[in-house]
Amino acid sequence: MSTKNPKKHNSFFYFLRHKKGEVEKRMGRSIDLSELAQCVSAEWEAMSQAQKMKYQEMAAGKRQTAEKLNSLGVPLRVKEDMERRKAKENEDMIKYIEHLVGTYRCHVGVERLSFYIISTSVYTCTDEGVLVPAELSVIRCSFLDGITKELHSLFKADIPAGYMNEALEHADMTHNLLPRQNGPVREERERLSRTGTEVHSLLQEFLTEVSHHHLIAYTLSIEQEQTEKILLQLTGGEQLQISGMKLKIYSLEVLFQSMCSFIGKVSLHQVTGMITQSWYDYHPGIACTVHNLNEGGSMMHCTLARVRRWMYLMCQHIGVCKNFGVTPVRGKHCPLEEDAQVAVMNLPEMMFVTDEAVVWKDGLGAADMLQQQEVRGKIMRTSSPLLAASRGTVTRQEGLNSPSTISCVSALPQL
């Protein structure tokens, strides 16, 4: 009895199989492999070696008939290897951060440790997992000097064919960088937008001050994979290098947790809550010029506002004045002072509104709450319903009904 050897397929075959559904959906009909190959061969040739790797691994896995495959035809070994590699990378990251922070604490003080914080956003993601970047921001900072250097850039909106509706929906729900009408926002976005190559050059120029013999930028864990992908795409699949060192993206929560260890044991969950608090989400002037012109809630999705906000909140929670003897500087350790700081909060579970006052369900009046938080200033922008706050007093605005949202002047916490 003869046994036929299984047919061997190369990596391009698995790329074709991956692309078939997408191309047929775009063309509105079924196509055979020969026609499909003509449609996607140029895309295959333009892909980097790193992007082709998963298809090469799929081809290698198929030739080992004893290997188990998942539903996509990828050997389980590939997934297991990837999980082990990520676990090792995470372990190395924690060791590096603990050693770095420990060294500074013992010799010159944690407040002198200078580090980069990075944030990115996207227009959309293709079926192949290619991200279309929208915005990138990086700051250089320390607890001693606050924010000392900033880079902010918008990407040209090069949306692939067939993805514009998805990109518009995503933009409407988040950063609003694809305004549907002509106007100041679109004009400012087009003025500031750059190609991926231009952003790559700006980033290389910005990351010139390398210290600790490593090139590290920190972001929230939820953004790590996205930011790593965008940077790889900017460099054609290779890690960005400065002075021979490859840029790595590490967890901002792990860094801040290690920095806070002299205060006491703090969990990663607690640290994440500290960094992502909403105190400065809508603080005037914290976002880029495009988002400052935008209406609605897009300001909190501005990447420049994010990195600034994260740093301000870290300064607040670690206590730069109390623990390091640093006098906070506005714009560096905390936001610039404005005539009004407006915070809109959804508080249906915490309060109810009567004809004369807002009453908190624990019996504390809104005026008392405002006095305790040292709120000062006056309301500039309106959002129904509004309570005007000045020197700790609260009065109802004329003609506004009561409701599920309350807008009040935000406090600047003590640093």
String of helices and strands: HHHHEEEHHEHEHEEHHHHHEEEHEEE
Q: How many helix segments? A: 14
Question: Compute the gyration radius: what is it?
Answer: 26 Å
Parts with pLDDT < 50 across at least 5 consecutive residues? 339-414
In whole angstroms, the N-to-C terminal distance is: 82 Å
Mean of residue pLDDT values: 77
Question: Mind explaining what this structure looks like?
Answer:
This protein has helices spanning 11-27, 33-46, 49-62, 76-107, 164-173, 184-192, 196-206, 221-234, 252-259, 268-275, 289-293, 303-318, 320-324, 366-372, and strands at residues 115-125, 131-142, 146-155, 193-194, 215-219, 241-242, 245-251, 342-346, 351-353, 358-360, 387-390, 393-396, 405-409. It is an alpha/beta fold and 415 residues long. Helix 1 (11-27) crosses helix 2 (33-46), helix 1 packs across helix 3 (49-62) and helix 9 packs across helix 10. The radius of gyration is 26 Å and the shape is globular. It starts with 10 loop residues before the first helix and ends in a 6-residue tail after the last strand.
